[in-house]
Amino acid sequence: MVGIVVVSHSNKLAEEIINFAKVLQQEDFEIKNGGDVKNEVYGTNIDNVKDAIIEADQGEGVLVFVDMGSSVFNANQAIETLKGKINAQIADAPLVEGVISAVAANFDDTSLEELKIIAEESRNFKKSRK
Q1: Taking a C-beta distance cutoff of 8 angstroms, is the pair 61, 88 a contact?
Q2: How many domains does the chain have?
Q3: Cβ–Cβ under 8 Å, residues 3 and 62
Q4: Average pLDDT of 66-92?
Q5: Coil, helix or strand for 33?
Q6: Which of 35, 64, 85, 118 is spaced 20 to 30 A from 96 at the CA atom?
Q7: 89, 61 in Cβ contact below 8 A?
Q8: Domain around 38
Q9: What global pTM score does this model have?
Q10: What single string gives the DSSP state of each residue in 38-105?
């Protein structure tokens, strides 16, 4: 199964997104918070993102969701340090919609690349038909 990591500047926001997404989780895979959960402050760092990716990996790769700014930088750096060990990729998707789409679509036969496409397509989700 593909693991999922949520990296936000707000640990509480990431935790709530994870809690909400778990309602839609149909398979057994890891969803981890890549923020600065140990210090409960705003922001992220490379080590926390890296640790979350390692914890989320079950051998099929990890899809990482970021909010903005330094979370993108730190996630990219963490992924780079794990290159050759863990296949992790950032989904260029809205944080909430992307995580929910990926969690709902994550099944045994779904690859990291397929899950990334599904998550990234969530940016086209129409909330109103008017």
Answers
A1: yes
A2: 1
A3: yes
A4: 96
A5: strand
A6: 85
A7: yes
A8: 3-124
A9: 0.94
A10: TTT-S---HHHHHHHHHHH-SSS-EEEEE-STHHHHHHHHHHHHTTTT--EEE--S-HHHHHHHHHHH
